[in-house]
Amino acid sequence: MSVANILHMSTGDGESSYAKNSLLQETVICKTLPILKHTIKSLCNANVIFGQCFKIADLGCSSGKNTLLFASNIIDIVDEVCTENNGKPPQFEVCLNDLFRNDFNNIFQMLPDFYAKYRKEMSANPGFVSFLLFQVPEGIENNGLNIFMAKTSPHNVFEAYGNQFHTDFTKFLQMRSEEIVFGGCMVLAFIGRKTRDPTRDDLGCIWELLAHSLLDMLKEVKMFLKSTGDSNEPRHNHGKNTTNLITAVSESLLISHFGSSILERLFKKFEKHVTTHLANTKTRFYNVVISLS
C-alpha cells in the first residue's frame, strides 16, 4: 500500500497524539525563523511589493499547533516588510497538506484565536496535495529483523535506501519547481545527520530500538510468555517523552503492518529500551534547512 494512503500523524489531543508531542518540531520551526525572514524579505525590494493575495503552502504534517505557528511567522514577516516599504498588507491564503487521514479538527478549533490575533481576512484551505514522502525501497527482504538501515543490515539495503532517496527527492524538487510562481520561494527544513553512516546517527538508533521492541514481543509469543511487571515500573520522563514522539509520527504505519492490538505493549517495551539508551548516551538530532528560489 502507498505510504501516502496510510501515513498521518496520531490524531486527537491525547497523551500520544502529535498535537501533544511536537515540541521538537516547534523548536526546529523557531530556529529556521531567521532563514525564513531573509527569504521572504529577499522577495521584496524597492520596485516589487507583494500583490493583493499572498499564498502560503505548508508541506509539513498540517497537524497540531505548529501548523498555525508556521503561518503566523510568515504573516508577521510579510507585515513587517510591508510596513518598512509603506505598502498595504495583502490578504493571505494558506494551503495545508491534505494527507488522506489528516485530522484537521484540532486546527479548526484553534482558528478563532488565530483570527482574533490578526483580525485579517485569511482563507484556510485544506486542499493542497504536497508532502515529502519517501517510499520503502524494494529488494530489502534480506534485512533480517531490522525495520530500517541498521548495523547488521547488508550492503544492498543501504544502497537501496540511497537510490530510493535520490529518486524520491529528485521527483520532489521537480514537482516543487513547477509549483513555485515566478519570483516565489520555498524554505525546506528536514531532519538530517552529522555522519555519512546512518547507523551511527541518533535517529537511526531510535529505529533500531523500536526493532528490538518488536523482536522482544516476537520472542514472547514464541515462548508463550506473559508480560509482567510493566505497570510497576517507575516512569522515566525522557524515555516517555521520546516514546510519545515516535508514537505520534509512526503509529499509523505500525498499525497498517501489525494492527492496533500490539501497540500498547510495543511502546512500553520501546520506552524501556529508550530509557536505558538515554541513560548511557547523550542524544542530539540534526536538521537541514534549505532556501530555494
Automatic annotation (TrEMBL):
It comes from the Eukaryota. It holds the Pfam family Methyltransf_7. GO terms for molecular function: metal ion binding; methyltransferase activity. Coiled coil: none annotated. One of its GO terms (biological process) is methylation. It comes from Artemisia annua (Sweet wormwood). This is S-adenosyl-L-methionine-dependent methyltransferases superfamily protein. Keywords: Magnesium, Metal-binding, Methyltransferase, Transferase. InterPro entries: MeTrfase_7, MeTrfase_capping, SAM-dependent_MTases_sf. Belongs to the methyltransferase superfamily. Type-7 methyltransferase family.
